Structures
1.
Amino acid sequence: MKAVILAGGLGTRLRPLTNKKPKPMLPLGKKPLLEYLIKWIRKNGVKDIVLCVSYLHETIEKYFEDGSKFGVNIEYAVSRKPLATAGQLKTAQKFIDDTFVCVYGDSLFNFSLRNMIADHKKKKSFITMSLYEHKTSIKYGVIDTKNNGKV
């Protein structure tokens, strides 16, 4: 099992904070946001990580290197230009040969990824998504689910 972290965006909505630093490397306390995410992934039993990077990727690569200081193995899927979700996953394709977890590099979670992975395997699901219920009037980017949790 590998985790793919999408960390190649420009972070334009957070400018000027992201002019010299990629969004996942913005500090939360004394550590970059991405460090918390990597530690959460490791805590949930996933040790192999593919980081999809682009914009200012050297900053991320210099900080995390091969991941050994953080108890994980990191490989880098580098794209020359920032790509959307599908494009970033395409760059990671050569590193993935089995089931994988995909998360955005600017996110923090507190649920059990370990339990989610176990449930995914038990149900032999093709895709499993973690969603948060939120009432909204926005009509885009919304996922409708049935009472049984199916999309």
2.
Amino acid sequence: MSDWKMMKLSEVATIVGGGTPSSSKTEYFENGEIAWITPKDLSGYNKRYISKGERNITELGLKNSSAKLLPKDTVLLTSRAPIGYVAIASNEISTNQGFKSLILNEGHIPEFFYYLLKNNVYLLESRAIGSTFKEISGQILKDTELNIPDFDTQQKIVDILSPLDEKIELNTQINQTLEQIAQAIFKSWFVDFDPVRAKANALAQGKTQAEAELAAQQIISGKTPEELTALSQTHPDQYAELAEIAKAFPSEFEEIDGFGEVPRGWEVKRIDEIATVIKGKSYKSSELAESTTALVTLKSFNRGGGYRLDGLKEYIGKYKYEQEVFSGELIIAYTDVTQAADVIGKPAMVMSDSRYEHLVISLDVGVVRPFDDVYKYFLYCLAMTDSFQAHTKSFCTGTTVLHLGKDAVPSFEFVNPNYELLKVFWKQTSPIFEKINLNIEENKSLEKSRDLLLPRLLNGEI
């Protein structure tokens, strides 16, 4: 390791703090164009690069606060609440006072320091001071010594680790696209009723039922009449399947009080008519100890919905059998501590974890179990809709900590399609969610490889 040297961080970078403009001055935030990052923006954030946070600030806000405009490739490090979130600025950026950021000297690679800091979080935490909450000061960070190699070695390490993270990020991006596809299908079929509307409009214009079916096929497939004709000749099986899907939709609407026009024959139902909703287990801190059982907690939810793999807490206490959850089950967040309330009422689908034999939902979580598996993905997509989110928000109580009322989820009413369409939707979306799960499993494997390589590379063993 002759090309490695113990160096203070102040020898390789300028350490810069951040600040928060006065929240009472709207002109410091309104229509701001300067990206402003807080530790909250990095909570659950798994990408290496970040371009913006939840809020921007204005030039005026920047000038009238301790926030600094940081150049692209600055390594952002949270210095409190909590310590050790790391990201690289992909453009000019600013932060609040919860950061001590590294503007690297020439000859040092941002991606290397991203990995170096993530691998030394325990050291940074041990150097933090404070009684109310721990914080690592700018001076302590400047004086922190780490083993740092020359430029070529930094590049070699980055070249080994980056492909793993790039593949993880690509899989995550693919999963976001796949989920958007499933949500788009759900919205078109069961919120906007596009295929039914296409049929009804065609018939209202005096067209035949066959022409109405063709109109629905166009909406469902996104193809022109000419492309559908070609499909019928080149892939008759696919065309026949599309025709069957279109046929499953009604051709007219009827009025239902409170819902307006809905497809004829569809019924209004409550969630508790098609599923059971079970709340999780309250626990004591003394029950959080090493175990093969883990609690699925509020931290298991991404902001805006979706499952986080790093939100589990090992648990040794008792629980009811119905509070155990399994891979693929739908869970809903029943509590929220975020200012923007962007977790409460949000859905996620449980992922298995090979480290644990049992997963149990905590009191902050509810599991929604459909009586028929045909509702599995339908319910997840339903819980993502604006109407479901607005409904659950109306059941929220509390100020600093929000709580969802017991009946919030069971009482939600929706327009339930015919059973044939439920089966069609399940068939259409199952491959999408299966691919999402495969990508998540691959990411878990890639992360394991990366995390095994990281300390060895940074110790000069490889």
